[in-house]
User: Fold these one by one.
Assistant:
Number 1:
Amino acid sequence: MKHNLNTSSFITSGIAASLIVLGAAASSNAIAADKQVEAADLVEIFQKLGGNHPGFRKAHAKGLCATGTFVPSPNEYFKDAALTSSGSLPVSMRFSIGGANPNSSENTPGVRGLGMQIKLPSGGVHTFTGNNTPVFAGKDPETFFGFLSTLLPDESGKPDMAKMMAFIQANPSVQASAMWNQKAKTPASFANTAYFGLHTFYFDSSSGQKTKFRWDIQPDLGVKTLEKDEAAKMPTAFLDDAFAKQLKDETVSFTIMASIGEAEDSEIDPSQQWPSERPQVALGKVTISTIGSDACKNTNYDPNRMSPGFTPSADPILRMRSPAYAISFGKRLSNQ
Ligand code: HEM
């Protein structure tokens, strides 16, 4: 598919959204993208973009802990999974704003995230950590890093928009994400946001059936966003209060969905969306019980920690996440 980027509106909306997502802060722009990118490089560039905030997560620094209960949905693809055959299970969650800045504004579009761990009777966990963006910015860590590098301020103190546009034009795998950013609106509430896993995972049943899938988490209260003028009137932090009000007045729940992949659907590239007509089944429903405690502060929502029968794909972005989360986890626990 050829994406026709409208440069000026992209700069005013999409790029602005990207910068907000990443919480760009003034810093030097000295990283060259000519070597194999490692997890520490990504953690470092997140900090260059969002600032150095000791003790906070190096991405998604601002967030809200929640707890809830998972009730599985029986279905033909996952029926003998411990995850879906153990009855109701406790859930730890953290809703978040993208970027390394713990003071990020909430009245602008950009990344909202959800880290979710379902606790199994065996003591293990199943993790679902996704963003509101339905497609990733790059096919591999090098492309993602290259894109982030173009967001760093140059000697004028601002990112060089021409350099960024040139990167997007030259790298087709960041274009779908750039197009999404261009149209993104401010989420009205964490409870009215859909979260996408983006990577491909597998489930191997005890009878030998292998299911290739991608997951997304849909809000049962529906997706709601704010128009630009509505968002501008909101305080810079309103998401916790909006969630608290909803939880007091109604049931807040989410349905975890799995799209079942076909042979031609990419297994290793989260910048390539699967066709929307793939069969979808529900894995289960998570109903929120509480929000606002400190319970998720010391949790690492590494998406590669899953329950028996599930395995990750060889997607290089997914593989990069475990070491990056571990570095960030270690740093924040030691107040770096
Ligand atoms: C190479 C790509 C990526 C890197 C290097 C990366 C890195 C990180 C790091 C360092 C953290 C903080 C971890 C911690 O301190 O516990 C984090 C958190 C998070 N990331 Fe990523 N990430 C990547 C891709 C993604 C993708 C593809 C998604 C969505 C599908 C995502 C969603 C999230 C969310 C929701 C959180 C917050 C989890 C929490 O609340 O603890 N990340 N990421």
Note: Residues 42-43, 57-60, 63, 94, 96, 113-115, 129-131, 136, 141, 144, 197-198, 270, 300-301, 317, 320-321, 324-325, 328-329, 332 surround protoporphyrin IX containing FE (CB under 6 Å).
Number 2:
Amino acid sequence: MKNFDIIVIGGGVAGCGAAISAARRGAKVLLAERQGFLGGCSTASLVSPFMSHKTSDGKVLVEGIFAELTHRLRDRDGMLANAFDSEIMKEVLADFVAESGAELLLRAHLTDVREGYTVTFNGNTTIKAKFLIDCTGNASAAAMLGAEFLPAKEYQSVTLMFDMAGVDEERVLAYAKTCPDNFLYPKMTDFDDPAEMSRGIYTVAGFFDEVAAAKAAGEYCVPGDMIFFIPRPRRGEVCFNTTHASVSDPNDPFELTRAERETRKQAREIESFVRKYVPGFENAYIARIADEVGVRESRRILGEYILTEEDVVTGRKFDDCVCRSAYPIDVHTMDGYIKDGIMSSAPPAGDWYEIPLRCLMPRGMKNILVAGKCLSATRPAQGSARIMPNCIAMGEAAGLYAAEKTR
Ligand SMILES: Cc1cc2nc3c(=O)[nH]c(=O)nc-3n(C[C@H](O)[C@H](O)[C@H](O)COP(=O)(O)OP(=O)(O)OC[C@H]3O[C@@H](n4cnc5c(N)ncnc54)[C@H](O)[C@@H]3O)c2cc1C
């Protein structure tokens, strides 16, 4: 049986951060991932861009492996401002992990874990480790070991992201400039040049009038009163974050099956809608649909500390800080995107809050950390902490801690 100091389970951005930092610190590390590629939400669910890792006045809060990852993506022409190409992300992450010295195990679905630790993948491959870092996004390993979780009466809605190609971006923005009240973003002024803007990053949240007209005509039933998309690095390609489905339990495959089916139908409905109603999309088509719905919120562990909404909005600091963030509380309901419904409270202007290491420590358990979106936090606090730069930072810190513990 193979032996490792540390097994990182789950190769999303948190798991990659954990494996890279632990291996660089000299630990013998295995990174195990159930898919045939790395990235989790950022690839399998087509999530982009990186949400802000800065304060409202531009102080950088997350550096380290996150900064290196963005440089590597840029070197491969895989980034436009904070948006990235999901295929290049898969390759960059795999190279980054390999260079760190961590061993990679793909198509490895965790099926059992026993104290000690003896970890089984796919029901037939058993590996031993001194320390586990659970980055499964739903704390699967911790659940198998009997960890406690914070109660949840409801969960954020799930979204099936998809990319459209063949978009005349300049035409979309030229139209947006003519009717700013029809948009939450972009709010263009006389000085904004659609041609120049279309070569960079922008957010489109709107087409309220078109959505209302299509709904009135019975041609559009997707939740919400607007569509939301941002560009991918390749010209003419945009990434839609517009479908929504509610799930009563994001770990119930029956629920997820319904959500996958519902949101896929929504994606095709959005494609028909934009081709008919949205200037610039006349010849656009869906180029790719995510492999699986993106789950924003799943199990949250009961940790040695529970990050709260008050910690976020007051900008609380901790001695055992592992990540700093100023991202607002962003909890999606099943109503989709609605005009006044995006984001709520954030830390004070120019300030940030911190996530303590104790939020990654399942209460009463030793030699295991849980990093990423399933940290120990209340629902609103998780709604802020869950963004990708934070998950990478949490993973990076977990990897360093585990490497020290297994020395
Ligand atoms: C629709 C949507 C839009 C979002 N928008 C943004 C955005 O614009 N910007 C931003 O910064 N953040 C955004 N987020 C949040 C962010 O993408 C996620 O919170 C973050 O990527 C989570 O990273 P993670 O590594 O914790 O978990 P995940 O990305 O979920 O990774 C978990 C990994 O574990 C693997 N795994 C699970 N179970 C097992 C098992 N049993 N055995 C082996 N492997 C397993 C999975 O395959 C996966 O690769 C969004 C999230 C969603 C869902």
Note: The chain has two domains: 2-153+299-328+348-405, 162-289.
Number 3:
Amino acid sequence: MSVEHPEDGWRPGWEALGRQLLERGSMTHDWAAPFAETPRTQFLPAVMWPYDQTTEEHVAVDRTADPDGWTRYACSDVAIITQWDDGTRTTPGTDMTSSSSMPSLVMSMLADLQVQPGHKVLEVGTGTGWNAALLARRAGRGRVFTIEVDPTVADTARRALSRANADVTVIHGDGLAGHPAAAPYDRIIATCGLRTIAYALVEQTRPGGVLLIPWGTHFTSTEATARLVVADDGTSAAGSFTQRVTFMRARAQRLAVDAYDAYVTSESKAGAEKSHTTLAHDEVFGTTAWDDNQFALGLRVHDVVHTRGPEEGGARPVWLLSLNDRSWACVLFRDGRDRFTAYQYGRRRLWDEVEAAHAWWAEQGRPGFRRFGLMVDKAGQHVWLDDAHNVIGKFPAASRL
Ligand SMILES: C[S@@+](CC[C@H](N)C(=O)[O-])C[C@H]1O[C@@H](n2cnc3c(N)ncnc32)[C@H](O)[C@@H]1O
């Protein structure tokens, strides 16, 4: 990956993007100057894969072959993939493993973080280094530390930050452990998705300091940003969720579900219990992963992943797989029916768990993500509804999330 020096061709596009973000309310006015001084053209590689909203696909853009197209994407409100499959290939693979996030998301998260000049900030997930450069423009020289798990990505970002004259310390390592050498921090921001917020990050933030972490459960592929404030005694951090997001997951917390075959053996198929449900698919799971359904269900049904199988004979199967044993369930949804067949196998009755979670969610008035909150202490993660005393889900520190 090579990062080129910016040319002035980026300026009109970048200024137009800045105006657009301000008008839409994605960027607050205090971030307008740092944004203007930090074009992301300085941080993007010559070959990159922006998300094209027209084709709804990632397209390869090469700065040498198409300099105008490259600049246009860099100055657009789109996410840009910069690495596939942990860098084991230079063409699109199966997993997007590093990127520059959508500018509107970056700027709205920075607004949520409320960074002040002089704050000491730690970022988990350096990526291109653009977000770290923005942080440094606001917090000040020598005040920003950023950790990247991938050595090549870390080196490339370090060089880009140095060329952009952004005084940021780039550390190669696992950001989940934080960077104790420079603690305590006033702010910690993660730009990768977490299923477990390591207590080390709470310990490394000063009392009253803020952590902004994209957090979710394994039930869904999306997250919500948890904005946690560290308590006066420094032993816990708590707060609510500010927006729905989707981030690449922290490497160590990527989902490694065993192959379907490990669950659905001929023995387990023969032993599966058959039942029926009248709950329709969209009623339970919503129409997209962005609906509140899946976020809420994951808070009650722990250590379970759900996936949709290929349509077969008019049936649209939904699979539920347990992450802590080999329990599974499969529900066959069909259009135009009001009764569906469910199969369940193993110690857990996963469809029963989902039905119970859905009934609970409906009874609570179908709360959206903003009504939930999160508290992290040494014992683990505790999710509440409406009030910090009303804990509705506990994820012990050792639990697989
Ligand atoms: C969405 S990108 C970050 C975007 C970045 N902030 C920017 O401005 O370009 C997510 C990054 O998190 C990194 N990452 C994943 N797990 C990590 C971990 N445990 N510690 C540190 N970095 C991690 C990935 O390698 C990837 O580069």
Note: The longest strand covers residues 205-215.
